[in-house]
Amino acid sequence: MPTSLHSPLDMHLHLRDGDMLKRVAPLSAHSFSGALIMPNLVPPIETKEDVQNYKNQILEAIGDEDFIPYMTLFFKPTYSREFLESVRDEITAIKLYPAGITTNSEGGLSGFDVEELRTTLEAMSDLDIPLCIHGETGGFVMDREAEFVPIYEKLATHFPRLKIIMEHITTKESVAALDRFDNLYATITLHHLLITLDDVAGGMLQPHLFCKPIAKRPEDREALLKVALEAHPKVMFGSDSAPHPKEAKECPGCAAGVFTAPIALQTLTELFEKNATPLKNLQKFISENAQDIYRLKPLQKEVILTKEPFVVPDNYEGVVPFSSGTALAYNIHTII
Ligand code: DOR
Ligand code: ZN
User: Fold this and answer.
1) Is the CB of 257 under 6 A from ligand 1?
2) Is 241 in the pocket of ligand 1 (CB under 6 A)?
3) Domains in the chain with CATH codes
4) β-pairing verdict for 302-306 and 331-335
5) Ligand (nearest to CA of 192)
C-alpha cells in the first residue's frame, strides 16, 4: 500500500544563503509544502528588509516548486512594538538564540532578565508572534537543555499569552515541561528520534551526527519517540536540517548540524510503520499540529511514498545526508 502525506511542513529548517541555498533549498521545496526558515545567517536576519531579501533569494532558488518559506527574525531584546507591528505580516515567528550557543549565534541573548525582555515579549504576545527558542545553557554539554527548562518556565509564567516553541528538544525534562504550561510547544527532529550519544561518539566518531543540542540518552530518545508517535498536539516535526560542506564536517573543529531534509519523509514513514503507528498520527506530527499551533494554511501538496528501497546518495552536491549510502524502506513515488 502506498502511503500518502498531505502538505508536510518542516517547522525548523536551515537553508543558508548563496551557493549553499541554491544546492539545498530545492530539496526541501520538492517534498515539503513549507518550512520555518531559521535566521542564523552571517549577518543574521534582523530587519524587515533582511526578511524580504532573504525570502526573495529562497523563492529564486526553488524555481517553480510549490513551497512557502515561513520567515523568522533573529531575536533582539531591542525590538520595539512599532518595529514588530511593521514586520508582523512578513514573519511567522522570531527565533531566540542564547549568545554563542551554536552556529552563527554570536549576536544572541546573553541574559534572561524578565524586565529587560518585557517590552519585546509583551508586544510579541499582543501581535501573536510565536517565540522559538534554542534552549541550552552554557553548562556541561549533556545537561545544557535540562538546565534551560527553568528559563522556559520563567518565560512561560511571565508571558502567558506568548506562544513559546522549545526547538529541537532532546530530553525527557523538556518533554515533561510541555504538559505543565499551556503556552509551551516543541519541535522534534528526525535524528533525535533515532540516535543517542552512543551513535555519535560511542564507537568511531561520527561527524555527520554531531549537532547542537547533542543527542542524549536512550531514555530521552524514548520520551521524544513517545510524544512524536502519539502525535501529542503540542509537538511538531522540525528537522533542524543544517547543511555544512563535507570538508567542514570531516575535519578537526567539525561544524554542528545534521543534514536530513532530503530523506526526512521517507525515514519518518519507516519509523512510524516500524512502531505500528497509525498514519493519521504521522499526518498530525508532520503537518496538522503545526497548522493548529501556528495557524497556517499550507499549500496543498500530496506526497505519495511507496515501499521500495531508496539508496541515499553519498552526498548532495558536497553535503553528506543522514543515512548516506544506506537503503531506506520507503521512496518518494509521486508528488501532486
Ligand atoms: O547542530 C546545529 N546546527 N544546531 C543548531 O542549533 C544550528 C545548526 C546550524 O545552523 O548549523
Ligand atoms: Zn536549528
Assistant:
1) yes
2) no
3) 3-335 (3.20.20.140)
4) antiparallel
5) 1
DSSP assignment of 65-84: ---EEE-EEE--TT--HHHH
**Each residue's pLDDT expressed in tens, for the chain with a length of 336 residues:** 679 999 999 999 999 999 999 999 999 999 999 999 999 999 999 999 999 999 999 999 999 999 999 999 999 999 999 999 999 999 999 999 999 999 899 999 999 999 999 999 999 999 999 999 999 999 999 999 999 999 999 999 999 999 999 999 999 999 999 999 999 999 999 999 999 999 999 999 999 999 999 999 999 999 999 999 999 999 999 999 999 999 999 999 999 999 999 999 999 999 999 999 999 999 999 999 999 999 999 999 999 999 999 999 999 999 999 999 999 999 999 999
Q: Cell 530545492 belongs to which residue?
A: 26
Q: Relative to the alpha carbon of 255, which ligand is closest?
A: 1
Interval between CA 243 and ligand 1 midpoint (Å): 9
Q: Rounded to an integer, what distance in angstroms lies between the CA atom of residue 172 and that of residue 252?
A: 31
For ligand 1, atom 2, the nearest C-alpha belongs to 257
> CB–CB of 91/129 below 8 Å?
yes
What's the whole-model pTM score?
Answer: 0.98
For residue 26 the three cell numbers come to 530545492
Torsion of CA 327, 170, 142, 216, to 10 degrees: -40
Ligand 1 binding pocket mutation candidate from 96, 136, 240 (most atoms within 8 A of CB): 240
Q: Is the CB of 248 under 6 A from ligand 1?
A: no
∠228-258-274 over CA atoms, to 5°? 35
Quickly tell me which residue has 519585546 as its cell: 120
